[in-house]
Specification:
The structure holds 2 protein chains of 2 kinds.
Chain A: E1 4-7, E2 10-13, E3 19-25, E4 31-37, E5 43-51, E6 54-57, E7 64-66, E8 76-78, E9 87-94, E10 104-105, E11 109-113
Parallel strand pairs in A: 2-11
Antiparallel strand pairs in A: 1-3, 3-8, 4-5, 4-9, 5-6, 7-8, 9-10, 9-11
Chain B: E1 3-5, E2 10-14, E3 19-21, E4 24-26, E5 33-38, E6 45-49, E7 60-61, E8 72-74, E9 83-90, E10 100-102, E11 106-111
Parallel strand pairs in B: 2-11
Antiparallel strand pairs in B: 1-4, 3-8, 5-6, 5-9, 7-8, 9-10, 9-11
Classes of the chains: A mainly beta, B mainly beta.
Chain lengths: 114, 112
């Protein structure tokens, strides 16, 4: 049981390049989330998914896209990288049932856009 | 508006001293509040949640609805408590229920 995994751990992109941040969980969780954390700031919600085939925007979705073709995977796509997207990206998941709302986090991907 | 405020960026104490990490929130409704911790080179993990009224690693936090606060306390700090601490509120963004709204975090440094 690996929990939530993210790849890559680090990445440097040039302005205008594209990339996909991978996220997978093996806990059969329906809910999955993408957050970004800028230096000195709290995590902000980019996109979320309540199940396979269902995604929706969070607080800061501009410049990103997601898909959820399976319960396990929730990739985040950056189409035209910009310096403002330099951040640490965290993926998280939680169970559908239960009122505790505990989220399980991946280790993060540190992205630099230059 | 849903918001979490952690007023201290850094809190430095000596081993054995009491610790209080402050957290205030803004939320219309009944909030679910959490403390998450991130130790060096580790992932973010849940420390405790208000609904459980539990003590984890000697830490406790009481929800005070009148003061809209959820401060984290420990009577005697240990060096291994040094970490980043995030207060979080279970939001209701777009009806998703369960997304977390985070404060900016407080770095706790416990000196020997």
């Amino acid at each position: 049981n690996a929990g939530v995994t993210q790849t890559p751990k680090f990445r440097i992109l040039k302005i205008g390049q594209s990339m996909t941040l991978q996220c997978a969980q093996d806990m059969n969780h329906n809910y999955m989330y993408w957050y970004r954390q800028d230096p000195g700031m709290g995590l902000k919600l980019i996109y979320y998914s309540v199940g396979a085939g269902i995604t929706d925007k969070g607080e800061v979705p501009n410049g990103y896209n997601v898909s959820r073709s399976t319960t396990e995977d929730f990739p985040l796509r950056l189409e035209l990288a910009a310096p403002s997207q330099t951040s640490v990206y965290f993926c998280a998941s939680r169970e559908k049932q239960g009122a505790t709302y505990e989220q399980y986090f991946g280790p993060g991907t540190r992205l630099t856009v230059t | 508006a849903q918001r979490v405020t952690q007023p201290e960026k850094l809190l430095s104490v000596f081993k054995g001293a009491p610790v209080e990490l402050k957290c205030n929130y803004s939320y219309s409704g009944s909030p679910e509040l959490f403390w998450y911790v991130q130790y060096s080179r580790q992932r973010l993990q849940l420390l405790l949640r208000h609904i459980s009224r539990e003590s984890i690693k000697g830490f406790t936090a009481d929800l005070n609805k009148g003061e809209t606060s959820f401060h984290l306390k420990k009577p005697f700090a240990q060096e291994e408590d040094s970490a980043m601490y995030y207060c979080a509120l279970s939001g209701n963004y777009g009806g998703s229920q369960g997304n977390l709204i985070f404060g900016k975090g407080t770095k706790l440094s416990v000196k020997p």
